[in-house]
Amino acid sequence: MKIKKLAIVLMLPILLTGCWDNVDLTEINIVTAMGIDKAEDGKVIVTVQVVEPAALQSTSSGQGGGGSTQPKPVFVESYKGETISDALISMKSIVDKRLFLSTIQVLILGERFCKDGINEALDFLHRDYQSEYLTDVLVAKDVTPEQILKIQSDMEAIPAMYIKGTIENTAIRAKVKRTMLINLFKDIKNKCRQVTIGQITKVNEKTVKTEGTAVFRDGKLVGWLDQYQTRGYLFATDKVKSTIVNIPVTNGKMSIEVLNSSGKLDVEFKNGEPAKLSIQVNLEGNIVEYIGKETLDSPGDIYKLEKILSQEVKKEIVMALNKAQKDYSSDIFGFGTVVHKYHPHYWEKVMDEWNDVFSKLPAEIKVDAKIRRAGLIKSPMMKDE
Amino acid sequence: MFRKIKRRLRVGSQQDNIDTIYTGIDEPLPRNIERVKERLNEIFSECSDYIQREIVCGEDGSVRILVSYIEGFVDKKILNQDVVRPILDYFSSAERQDKAKRVYQLIKECIISNNEVREVESLQQAVYKIVSGDAVLFVDGSKSALVVGVKAPQGRQVEEPDTEVSIRGPREGFVENLATNMVLIRKRIKTPNLKFEMMQLGIQTKTDVCICYIKGIANEEIVKEVRKRVKKIRGDAILDTGYIEQYITDNRLTLFPVVGNSEKCDKLVAKLLEGRVAILCDGTPYVITVPHLFIESIQTSDDYYDHAFFASFMRVLRFLALLISNLLPAMYVALVSFHHTVIPFKLIITLAASRQGIPFSPFVEAILMITAFELLREAGVRMPRPIGQALSIVGAIVLGEASVNAGIASNLMVIIVAITAICSFVVPPLIRATMLLRFAFLIAANFLGFLGISLVAVTVIIHLCRLRSFGIPYMAPLSPLTATDLKDSFIMVPIWAMITRPKILFQEDTRGTVGIKRQEVDKISED
Amino acid sequence: MEKARISSLQLFLLITGFLFGSTLILNPATGAKNDGWLAILIGGAVGTLLLAAYASIALLNPSKTLVEILRDRFGKVIGNIIAILYIWYFIHLASLVFRNFGSFMLTTTYPKTPLEVIIAVFALVVMYAVNSGVEVVGRMSEILVPFVPVIAVIISLGILTVHDFTAFLPVLENGISPVIKASLNLLTFPFGETIVFLMIFPHLNKRENLKKVSTLSALSATGLFLFIFFRDITVLGSHLIYQATFVPHLTSVLIPGINLEPLFNVNLIIGGSIKVVICMYAAVNGLNQLIGANDYRKFTTAVATFCVVLSIWVYENIFEMFDWAENIWLYYSIPFQIVIPLMLLFLSLIKKGNPAHEKSIE
Questions:
Q1: Mutation target vs C (from B340, B443, B451, B507; most C CBs, 10 A cutoff)
Q2: Domains in chain B: boundaries
Q3: With an 8 Å Cβ cutoff, are C258 and B524 in contact?
Q4: Domains in chain C, ordered, with CATH?
Q5: What 8-state DSSP symbol labels residue B74?
Q6: Which one of B251, B346, B458, B459 makes the best mutation probe of the C interface by having the most chain C beta carbons within 10 Å?
Q7: For residue A40, how many other CB atoms are within 10 A of its CB?
Q8: Which of A273, B62, B72, B86 sits between 20 and 30 A of A315, alpha carbons compared?
Q9: The domain A239-385: what is its CATH number?
Q10: B76, exposed or middle or buried, with CB in 10 Å at 0-12, 13-18, 19+?
Q11: pLDDT tens digit string along B112-169?
Q12: Which chain A residues contact residue C243 at CB under 8 A?
């Protein structure tokens, strides 16, 4: 009895001193972006972008006054190591506090690193309890992640937030494949669908551009899709939320805003073998701009336009599918999932060569486009003189 | 450990408080008035407020009467008018000479015009009546004395209580005078089933204590248990119902109130009508009610006067406030020192920026600020009202602002302490429990983050489930779940839909075992 | 035995909370990948029968605890030996839950805190609950257990947008055997573990409800398991379910914009504490009855300390824990959970004879 009480009393001081996992917010470096690349000698280069909260607050509040030498709100450091965790831990020798990874907004992978396979990065990030599954992942084309992270944007104090903003914007235009860490974790070992990651390029010292898609096969970078192919790919995989499609019309052009789109993949089987891939896309749009001379007031005009729109979208899908089948031989669409779900026995046989089977299959693409509204005016402003 | 302390306390309380006049057996009144005078003078020696007057009248002074009372306690005008003058008038004009026995009878039945006349037969009782403010008439040759109730009205008028302000509803509050309080209750419940059981407690103070309940509504077992426990009270003084509360409570080692108290008549009456038992005590406006359950802490009398929608909303809000005032600082500490992964990105930057340059850890910072706040509160309460207000303004504005500017506390911490403080005032019955629990949660948060907080919370819940108030589980009707009584818990149904009386006070398993349960609880708490 | 009584609702919540227990973090059905739902259905159905069988044992031996029943049916010597084994089993069970709890906390949130500290602090709370008696534990369950499904639903609502409702296809991809294995796993963990409740059943205030309550709680636990399984598989896909260490935890951190991990931990603390409290209560009460002492509280500290030590010693690393839960636990538990109880049921039936049996079924 007495001993128990005594023990409890003796434990109290321990309770009062915070211990073990108790780390104050001021003792961590808040990492906003991380870049992973490979050096020529095969080692991993990890770049982190760390935000300085105090400096950030003073820049945002002191903007009106226009201070002379403001402290920089972020700093970027790189370090080379055998593995990612090794590089991160070794980096402690050049940064002042413990690196905190949960706040990573964007993860940028280098081209060289991707060509060797991204599994290495994913293992660490998946194992680490701190990683944030909803981090956006991008592949840097033609530049190293470090160069991208070192940009200084005028629009946002934190470059990572700027990059994230551009991804969100471009994703709304359906010109970039938005991939988050969790999507990679789901798909990286999944033979039914190959990984694709958005692409980022550097425009100048202040701006970057996120457009296009990096195509992987078995975890290794094999090529790219440009912005139109990307959109075709997104249409087919039902990832388009909204976008603007430009279509040619007689004596002019027209922009149509797609507001609703649904894509459905299927694999048709004949005699137990896959015979045909089919992609069915339904979309709805509004006319937002029309530069031309035709009138626009009867349903017939709209039907004509719908047809052109369908063809335009179909063209993009065909381009994407051709790239995936002919150039990269990688089932980025996820036809494998359909096969796996509905024809599991066939799938078991073909699992490992599915990408090759996929490349050889013919495809049928159906696009059903509807134009619902035309804005506040009917015929174009530019009428024949 | 506690058992030993208790025993020591008990031994201590038995040794003193032996008073010759009160502990001796009742001695019969001497028939001889001279003897009475002698004894009274002996008992009231050095009592300068003791007055006695001897009336000698009738033929050759055969009628001798002694009037004794305490100065200021009785209304002299009434005494003269109702007692002394009638006696003098009667006997000066009376022709016949009466025997002593007859004189006594005469005085009692036809002379005194006051209605409140009683008889006492022992000296001790007579003395007790004198010190409680009655006038006592000793008649020579009689073996009993007459007690005339001529108490002067004492204390303040009935007014609105400061502690429990209501927006709507009756404003009458109890006063220090027991009789007034009883009238206030009786006025609202006009039935002879409303019972007041009187008793005197306190060896020195002889305070009037009154157990009040409605027969037929209150659970007989609980009434019996209350009676038993109140009668067991041994102590020199009962100055407030708070004393009684501490004697009769089920579980002495708890932060939570297991006995309710109120100053408002309407609230008390409502409790009586729910089947609760009230204990009134002379000299204090606070009336205690038992059993008191957790859910009562978030109920107010206003709830019942207003629409049930608002009342339900307010109750949920009050419960939320209770949670916030307990947990908010601990949550903050846990977030800032453990669970960085949980904080959204934009918030973490704000938090980190606000913490920049603060020399203390969040825990120390929180402890400092909360202690400062509690000090301010305590100082404000004890100060005379105008100074108290000034103090709180100085404390809140100047201290908070200055500590942020000085870089001792982050401005977020100031906000958190302020919110905590506001929320803690929303549920007044639990202010003190919250005050201490807040520190417990803080320490746990600093030790193990959210895990620590959750474990302390589970402990508190276990503790709440263990508690009983007069045999009724403290967390009823939530646990044990009494479906029909949920009508008046977090969500309140309108008054017209409350058809049945609370069943929780009549639980099958508590019936007949109330006494046993008490002992069990005692035993557990001592372990 | 304590004279305390618990109500039907309290027993229902206790059994359900017990079944949730550590099943919330270690899903035994993951072995069957996307056929887990089948495993849960089969395991749940058989588990319900098993629980009904336990209830029958209790009904055939009214107001007797497991230790007393064992003594009655097997004779004093053998009965006592089996009772000791059972007490060991309960202690072991409690320490396993301690360990699961500790490992989870260490992996997800407290990498630097010693395992011992987390388990010991948890054990202090559990001891307090055990010493408060079964009545208080019952009342505690009324406040705590309803949070479990509510939190599960909150988490599910948060990730409503990312569902893929055909994720459980194809059915029976790898044949029936992994499903059977997973359902067996589910039967022994957690359903078979409810044998502990033979120490609690005598406290029920309305004995006639016993069978109804126990089957209902098994069914509702199965329902919640199914719900959680479908939620996880539609969000994560079968591959990730197989790969992740703590599946439902992974789901809870996927909600966009806000991290509900703490809520998930609350669920674990509730389920875990109910489970440990029941196991430990059963163990100390069993010991108490075995020795014939008058107050079980004397044993609590000793048993709790032993559990904590055992839980730290029991595995070297986390993979042993998973391996144990998936492979060894099954064979270790079957005698305790199925063989002996069925013998008991059989013996009780014989002893009672037909008329008594019918009476108890009424």
A1: B451
A2: 13-148, 178-297, 305-466
A3: no
A4: 8-361 (1.20.1740.10)
A5: B
A6: B458
A7: 6
A8: A273
A9: 3.30.300.210
A10: middle
A11: 887 888 888 888 888 888 888 888 888 887 888 888 888 877 778 888 887 788 888 8
A12: 185, 189
